[in-house]
Write a structure and sequence with these properties.
Shape: globular
Number of helices: 15
Number of strands: 8
Largest sheet: 2 strands, antiparallel
Helix content: 55-70%
Radius of gyration: 28 Å
Order of helices and strands: HHHHHHEEEEHEEHHHHHHEEHH
Distance between the termini: 94 Å
């Protein structure tokens, strides 16, 4: 019989708190991630944000709001080591709980197995990838290497235009580059600025970032599996499911059910249950983020480019020339994403687009009537904006993990052309 079941009401309160926390966390996380997936969710999200801000500004003094705003701005909009320290504390905290609570249980019930090698291997591999990602040059664009980096990619004429100059760095920006306001520098093949590594993610360190994500996911999944395994061994060894507990409401001994088992483990092994719960939620959230970046790797796209495509303003696409004078056709309708608005605008003005530089036969084509648009890529080299830089899986992987190998290929092509011209 479970002796710890005399205070059943308090135990149920703990369990309700645990599952309530999990439910709210999951609901908020899913809502935040998919709030822009449809106009309905987007409108609901904006209304909830506005309501929350009204409540906060009504209840919280202005001094506190200003202090919090300044702190948030410092942490997320400047280069600092705050989130790096937070990451280190989270990883160390999880591993300390694992070492103190989970490993002893595993070695008690399975003493002949090696339970420490694989977790340590993942931990040190992840730490090495993290160090390389944070410490490697992400691909800074300078006046010395701008021309060399510009030879790697052709400008698509829409997202990236040839010959455009960075107003801050005063250098000609290569295609797929972007000026990071936090780092105050242009980054070649810019993906995003990562607050956890306190650095930009670009051509130079994207491979280390992907290794960091994959090893972190492996570490989290392995921790969740081993911690769950320890709880299963405890339940099996103590034969908890075969025992019973005294129900204070009926005054009788009742068989142990799964909710009762979870309550009992939560009271006896709170840190283990908390660790398992946290790791399972992180598996879901970080798993989606990791799969997203693997998908970008496969199609040879960056987060920056995907964001630009998702919010492509129809009225500013000079190369796709929607009718700017027609507000009925070019304006984005309420609740409509800019990308969908662009597609609708393009369909309505297909005749005009064919006379200019537009989408045709699933590719960007330049008609004879259109004017050059900052040297856009040629028709034969283009498909559409979504897959403009997609050159096949193997080439895409090579481009990420061997980013500077393309420079050698470009140099060899130039040398060959110069030799051909001489002969």
């Amino acid at each position: 019989m479970l002796d710890s079941w005399k205070n059943s009401t308090n135990s149920m309160d703990f369990l309700y708190f645990l599952f309530g926390y999990i439910g709210i966390f999951a609901l908020v996380s899913v809502f935040v991630m998919f709030s822009r997936a449809s106009p309905l969710l987007s409108n609901i999200s904006d209304k909830l944000k506005g309501l929350c801000l009204k409540i906060v500004f009504t209840l919280v003094p202005g001094v506190v709001i200003n202090s919090v705003t300044k702190s948030v701005d410092y942490v997320f909009n400047t280069r600092n080591h705050v989130m790096q320290l937070v990451f280190v504390v989270l990883v160390l905290g999880g591993n300390i709980i694992f070492m103190l609570d989970v490993l002893p249980l595993l070695y008690i019930f399975e003493p002949d197995k090696n339970h420490i090698f694989f977790p340590l291997f993942l931990l040190f591999t992840n730490a090495a990838a993290y160090h390389l990602c944070a410490g490697t040059d992400p691909g800074r664009v300078t006046s010395k290497n701008a021309a060399m980096l510009a030879s790697l990619y052709k400008a698509d004429g829409v997202l990236f235009k040839s010959g455009s100059e960075c107003s801050t760095c005063r250098v000609i920006k290569p295609a797929r580059s972007k000026h990071c306001k936090i780092c105050n520098q242009c980054i070649h093949r810019f993906d995003h600025h990562c607050i956890w590594t306190n650095s930009c993610i670009g051509a130079g360190n994207l491979r280390y970032f992907l290794i960091f994500l994959v090893t972190l996911m492996a570490m989290i999944i392995n921790g969740a599996v081993m911690s769950s395994r320890a709880m299963v061994l405890v339940v099996s060894h103590l034969k908890i499911m075969e025992s019973g507990y005294w129900d204070p409401y009926t005054g009788q001994v009742q068989p142990v059910t799964f909710p009762v088992l979870i309550q009992h483990l939560f009271m006896q092994q709170p840190r283990c249950i908390f660790l398992i719960t946290s790791l399972v939620m992180l598996t879901f959230l970080l798993g989606l983020f990791t799969l997203y970046h693997i998908y970008l790797l496969i199609i040879n796209q960056t987060t920056n480019e995907r964001y630009k495509l998702a919010f492509l303003p129809c009225d500013k696409l000079s190369s796709l020339s929607c009718n700017n004078n027609s507000t009925e056709h070019s304006a984005i309708l309420p609740g409509e994403s800019r990308r969908n608005g662009f597609k609708r605008c393009h369909d309505m003005h297909s005749d005009e687009n064919e006379r200019n530089f537009g989408l045709k036969n699933e590719g960007l084509v330049q008609s004879g009537h259109s004017k050059p648009n900052n040297n856009p890529a040629k028709t034969s080299d283009t498909k559409n904006l979504d897959s403009f830089y997609n050159r096949g899986l193997l080439h895409n992987v090579k481009e990420v993990f061997l980013p500077w190998a393309q420079l050698k290929d470009v140099k060899q092509i130039k040398i060959k052309k110069s030799r051909d011209q001489k002969t």
